[in-house]
Amino acid sequence: MNHDPLRQALLTARVPRYTSYPPADRFTDAVGATEKTAWLGAVAPGSAVSLYVHVPFCRRLCWFCACRTQGTRSDAPLDRYLEHLAQEIALTRRVMPESVLVSGVNLGGGTPTLLSPDRIDRLGGLIAGAFDIGGAEISAEIDPTDCDEARIDALVALGLSRASVGVQDFDPQVQAAIGRTQSVAATRDTVHALRRRGIGSVNIDLLYGLPHQDPARLGRTIESVLALSPNRIALYGYAHVPWIARRQRLIPEDALPSPEARLALAELGRARLIDAGYVAVGIDHFARPHDALAQAARSGVLRRAFQGYTLDGAETLVGFGPSAISRFVQGYVQNPASTEAWQRSVGAGGIAAARGVVLTDRDRVLATVVERLMCDGAVDLAQLGAAPGSDLVAAAGAALERYPGAGTFDGAVLRLSDRRAARLVAHAIETAVTGASTPVSRYSLAS
């Protein structure tokens, strides 16, 4: 019997991803268009904002994916999407101060590279026509199976400076089990095409915990990825949640690795990447030592965002498109999840919003605790105004008692000795302070 509470929790616990705090499952329809309109108007003139554009379409629906996407064989839905996106951007820009500065633009999905070059040009024109993006870092998610050199040229013309290339796993049996076929050659061609055009930052996304995945298969995938010399690598755990993502019902559950096997895969991946010279960043990212992400981690300015880790320090994030989430100092607001509902909302001439949350002072403190644990593996509670004997200090102490070996706490600074425990400790502190509990069906530790 395993009497190590930390290892047992790493195998079985279900906790949020904490790409935001509060997590998106805490959003309610009590917050909507009224709040979003007011918060957009209250953005400080001259302040930095970040933009996220969700492109919710794919030619193929990969079975492992739990993102808000829809398949399309024709281009007509793409044109309707761009028409409504133009309306949403115009409506949003109308209520924002004129002098905001855009620090970053991220194109996510779905599959942004599903858009043809002329549609990418149109998308870029919509953004650049409403915002000054001249000094912004512009990034895009790229699927090598739905991307050619003309599309890359269009992204470069938009100002692309960082590309995120999806891989997941190169093994044919694993790919067949997750509904995603992608060759090493196609991926290599895409990476080389990006570099020939001067894109200086290329990161690659991998998954562990997939069906039929074992150390040998994952090891071969990692070696193939290392041969491409990406600047950054994200190694995420696959979250099997077929009750949320119906397409995951196509994945053979009996082929999924056991909890012990998936933890071993995570440890193998981490060791291989560190041995190859990458620096561990946060809980699931790896970067070259001189990469800006690694430098941000060393200097304590790394941020946690919906896309993972970022250097963007903007307090405001404005999301466009179905299911996109906007972040303000006052709270979070998410757009309608379905494309149809989002189009109805925008077509009616209103600010798109379906649900959200208003941040309390306690939320802001807990958000800082969670973010610093997820980014730095440490947080100084004294700097947050937590006095000895306060609920927060007591919760931090109790969290480390619950997970011996996770870290140390001197009454002020909580420091993790095992970064894998970041989400566990953050969740333990949160639940102790708020009294809230997370439905165990919603999250898994490796998600």
Quick tags:
447 residues; alpha/beta; 9-stranded mixed β-sheet; 3-stranded antiparallel β-sheet; 14 helices; 19 strands
Overall mean confidence score, pLDDT: 93
The helicity comes to 25-40%
From the spread of the alpha carbons, the general shape counts as: globular
Strand order of the largest sheet: 9-10-8-7-6-5-4-1-13
DSSP strand (E) fraction? 15-25%
Low-confidence stretches: 439-447
What does the main sheet amount to?
9 strands, mixed
Report how far apart the termini are: 25 Å
Mind telling me the C-alpha Rg?
21 Å
Individual helix count: 14
- Secondary-structure-based class equals alpha/beta
Count of distinct strands? 19
Short description:
The chain has helices at residues 5-12, 33-41, 76-95, 117-130, 149-158, 172-178, 184-196, 215-226, 259-275, 292-299, 339-347, 361-376, 391-402, 422-434, and strands at 48-55, 57-58, 70-71, 101-109, 137-142, 160-168, 201-208, 232-237, 279-281, 285-287, 303-305, 308-310, 316-320, 325-327, 331-334, 355-358, 378-380, 407-409, 413-416. With 447 residues, the protein is α/β, with parallel strands linked by helices. The strands form 5 sheets. It has a 9-stranded mixed sheet, with helices on both faces. The protein has a 3-stranded antiparallel sheet with strand order 14-15-16, with helices on one face. A 3-stranded antiparallel sheet has the order 17-19-18.
